[in-house]
Amino acid sequence: MLIANQMPRIFLMKEKGNDITLTDPDAKWSIDAVLQFYANTYPILTTAKISGPVISEDKVQYRFESMMGTKG
Hints:
The protein contains one helix and four strands, in the order ββαββ. With 72 residues, it is mostly beta strands. It has one domain (9-65).
């Protein structure tokens, strides 16, 4: 018998040079809804784009990439 399980989703972002792993607040939410949810905590995500999914270590990974550049 074949049993199918849904792989957990994780969300990655960079803040001040550090990688941050964000957990999935609700598996039923779309990726855009998760981005908006975390934008309340991390304002840099208001202009982020989503890349992925990448399957690694039995998890589905999405990356939130900031679109803000640096001055100078």
